Amino acid sequence: NAGVTQTPKFQVLKTGQSMTLQCAQDMNHEYMSWYRQDPGMGLRLIHYSVGAGITDQGEVPNGYNVSRSTTEDFPLRLLSAAPSQTSVYFCAAHGGSSYNEQFFGPGTRLTVL
Amino acid sequence: AQSVTQLGSHVSVSEGALVLLRCNYSSSVPPYLFWYVQYPNQGLQLLLKYTSAATLVKGINGFEAEFKKSETSFHLTKPSAHMSDAAEYFCAVSQFGNEKLTFGTGTRLTIIP
Question: Cα-atom radius of gyration of chain A, to the nearest Å?
């Protein structure tokens, strides 16, 4: 039982490049979320999903797209990376008997030059 | 709207001393409150949660927090600090159960031998 996994762990992009951050969970939780963590700002919610096929925006959605075709996967897409998107990205999942606890992945550290 | 304020971005205590990390919240409805811990280069892990049951909540690793509605506070305490408690601690609030968490900016706890 791996919980929440994220790939890659580290990534460097040039401004304007696109990429997808992968997130997968094996707990069959219906809810999944993406956060970004920046120094002195805590974690901020980017997008979240309440089930396959259903997504909604969080606090800082601009520049990011998501989709949820399966319960297990919740990829985050950067269509045209900007230096302001340099951050550490965390994916989380919760639901069922673990509704009141979000399980976080190990994070992806992204640098945009 | 909801928000969280964590007083003190850095807190240092001696090993064996009391740990007190402060959290004040703002919420237009009865809130759900959480404390998460982040060890270096890892994701977040739930310490404890308040979900409108008992106002004194006990969590893992000897931590506890008390919900005080009159003070809009949810401070985290531990009677005796251990070296392994060194980490960053985040308070979070939600008006939607465990949905759409709003995190504070975090408090980095250092333990002095």
Answer: 13
- The closest of A63, A60, A59, A57 to A13, measured between CA atoms, is A63
Cβ of A43 within 8 Å of Cβ of B90? The answer is yes
Answer whether B97 sits within 8 Å of A40, measured CB to CB.
no
Question: How many whole angstroms separate alpha carbon A110 and alpha carbon B104?
Answer: 22
In what helix (H) or strand (E) does residue B10 lie, and over which residues does it extend? strand B10-14
Over the stretch B44-100, which tens digit does the pLDDT of each residue have? Answer: 999 999 987 788 999 999 999 999 999 999 999 999 999 999 999 999 998 777 678
Cα-based distances in Å from B94 to A61, A67, B10, B35, B50: 18, 23, 24, 12, 10
Interchain proximity A100–B97, CB inside 8 Å = yes
Q: Which residue has the tokens 């974690």?
A: A43
Residue A62 token pair? 């601009």
Of the candidates B32, B51, B105, which has its C-beta nearest A40's C-beta? B105
